[in-house]
Amino acid sequence: MATIEECREALDRLSDNLARAEGDVRGAAALDRSLSCHITDLDQTFTGRLDDGRIRVDAVAPGPPRTKAEIRLAMTGDDLLALVAGELKFPKAWASGRVRLEAGFRDLLRLKSLL
Fold first, then answer.
1. What is the pLDDT of residues 34-54, one digit of tens each?
2. DSSP string, 68-98
3. Are 73 and 57 contacting, i.e. CB atoms less than 8 angstroms apart?
4. Which residues of the chain fall below pLDDT 70?
5. Other CB atoms closer than 10 Å to residue 62's CB: what's the count?
6. How far from 15 is each of 6, 95, 96, 97, CA to CA, in Å?
7. Is 5 exposed, middle or buried, given 0-12, 13-18 or 19+ CB atoms closer than 10 A?
8. What pTM was computed for the model?
């Protein structure tokens, strides 16, 4: 089982990957939205912002998200690590329910190129 520190490092790596992206991926990530990522097996939630292609984590709190972020993710810590490492493909994980993504319709359309 992944630790909270490993999950934080994975989110930092994802942020770095998004910041280095080009083309359509860069454009899709260039949103300014509140973000939450609930790590279900650890029952911890990272909250912050997706801002100009970077993920900024502002806090980690126990339990599910206390407020409704504009982009909401939920998954196990191991699935987060596997996604960031490229070992788990997001479309398959989303379709099977291993990863939950909730956002407004327009944001989902923009984010689809990241998937």
1. 999 999 999 999 999 988 888
2. --SEEEEE-HHHHHHHHHTSS-HHHHHHTTS
3. no
4. 23-29, 112-115
5. 9
6. 14, 23, 25, 23
7. exposed
8. 0.90
